[in-house]
Amino acid sequence: MLIYKICPAAQWRDAEAAGSFAGAPVDLADGFIHFSSAEQVAETAAKHFAGQSDLVLVAVEAAPLGDALKWEESRGGALFPHLYAPLDTGAALWVKPLPLGPDGAHIFPDL
């Protein structure tokens, strides 16, 4: 199963240079890296990244993250994937741009 992280492209480039992604400011404040499932990620973009351009969508296979990945109740009682460890950027299966469409909503690749 793939899980997804939305973040500013520059932040991901910095993480790639370092080899590890510790998280965005909200992740660092919460003590874990926020991810979303394929079913959740568009709502996450709309709720937390509305109008933001120059974002990337990072796809990661959940199983290899092991016990550091916890599915915890969040928005609307749904279970969201939270990673309680830095993410090795080599774990990214792909990283794709998440552009804004003419209506201001993000345009997602096929998930």
CATH architecture: Alpha-Beta Barrel
Our count of helices gives 3
Percentage of β-strand residues: 25-35%
H and E string: EHEHEHEEEEE
Terminus-to-terminus distance = 11 Å
Shape: globular
Number of separate domains = 1
CATH superfamily: Protein of unknown function DUF952
- Biggest beta sheet summary: 3 strands, antiparallel
Residues in helices, as a percent range:
10-25%
Count of extended strands: 8
Q: Could you tell me the mean pLDDT?
A: 96
Query: Low-confidence segments, ≥5 residues, pLDDT <50?
Result: none
- Kindly provide the radius of gyration, computed on alpha-carbon positions and rounded to a whole number of angstroms: 13 Å
Structural class: alpha+beta
Strand order of the largest sheet: 1-4-8
Descriptors:
3-stranded antiparallel β-sheet, alpha+beta, globular, ADP-ribosylation fold, 111 residues
Task: Chart the SSEs and their pairings.
Blueprint: E1 2-8, H1 9-18, E2 20-21, H2 25-30, E3 33-34, H3 41-48, E4 55-61, E5 69-73, E6 79-83, E7 87-88, E8 92-97
Antiparallel strand pairs: 1-4, 2-7, 3-6, 4-8, 5-6
Tell me what you see in this structure.
- Helices cover 22% and strands 32% of the residues.
- It has 111 residues and is an alpha+beta fold.
- It has a single domain (2-97), classed as Protein of unknown function DUF952 (ADP-ribosylation fold, Alpha-Beta Barrel).
- Strand 5 and strand 6 form a beta hairpin.
Summarize the structure.
The protein is 22% helix and 32% strand.
